Amino acid sequence: MRIVLLFSAWLLSFGALAAPGDVATLDRSTWPEQLTSPTLFDVASRAEILMFARVLLASESLDETSLAQRLGLRTINLDSVNNLRQRMWQRLLTNYNFAQQSCDQDASFCFLVEDLPTLREQAAKFVVSDDSFYIKWSEPSRLFHAQYLDEQLRKAALFPQTSSEVDRFGDYERNGDEMHDRLFLLTFDSAANAIPDNTAWVTEYLRKSNINGTFFVLGKDIQARLAERSVASLQATYSQQCIGVQGWEFRSHSHWQDWQDSVKRSAELVKNKLPENYVPLFRPPDGQRRSDAQGFFESQGLQVALWDIDPQDGAGKLKGSQSAQRVLTLMLLWRHGVINFNVKQDALKTSMPWLITQTAQSGIGWEDCQEAFR
């Protein structure tokens, strides 16, 4: 039985990493096993949870000035940062409890974790020995999680002055927190660029795979497509899929004077032309929206649909293979959630098939888009 050795005295150094703005990715080939069973998914999940927990714990040793410097910011909202850390710890504990249910089948990365103090204790002394089956994964994973944590802490440090998906403004906003273990929702954002638009390719691929997703569209894009083709043709493209809205155009809805009209116009257009696909969800571009918008969204019968697994495939940040491997690592870490691919990036044609194939035998499920956020 492959057991990872522990060294109680090794405190992970929060060493030099990439500069703020760089995107975390992990080469999954460093992990020595394919996810060919639910048990092997759990083994990999336990490993990623423990590694992230160790990095999260180490970050708490930084004072406010040091953390701000690390994140490349002059000032930070420390309350928001600490709130994020607290939510992360609770989710890590819940996830580890799920992941250790298969420890009787494979005891790798199985340690006594009964509550948050014992999780923090195990995180503090977690290390992979040099002769471990998993040693090639260890350092790349540590670097990934340290960089990924920086991404999240930076968003929290700027919240709510700069809004993002890192936190919610109320119960009318939804993300993947409440989803069941091993369940994931595929969502697809639009972007400011008109091309490439991979919607037709993606929807056909999903149908062939017996999966569906939620497409967040721009009102002006739907209007332009209807000028070129029939409603029936557009309905055929989105057959069996769900459609939410991202506003009339791709721009921040936090300081735009006409943001309400943007939401209403796009929702009315989709509801009228694609009623079978329409779901009452608004996805704010780049996660930017107003903090005082609850009354408006409730009056429109809309929920704000956020996400918690970001492929970072927008604006060509990551190649398709890098994006897919990032998503898989975050799926192992968070064990459920909402993924937000960018439908206007060609990287999607590589990343999504790879992800679907890699997880086909892992015991995870894809949430039905009609059931999500209910």
From TrEMBL:
The keyword Hydrolase applies. One of its GO terms (molecular function) is hydrolase activity, acting on carbon-nitrogen (but not peptide) bonds. Residues 179-303 form the NodB homology domain. It comes from Pseudomonas frederiksbergensis. Pfam families: Polysacc_deac_1. Residues 1-18 form the signal peptide. One of its GO terms (biological process) is carbohydrate metabolic process. InterPro entries: Glyco_hydro/deAcase_b/a-brl (IPR011330), NODB_dom (IPR002509), Polysacc_deacetylase_ArnD (IPR050248). This is Polysaccharide deacetylase. Keywords: Hydrolase, Metal-binding, Signal. One of its GO terms (cellular component) is membrane.
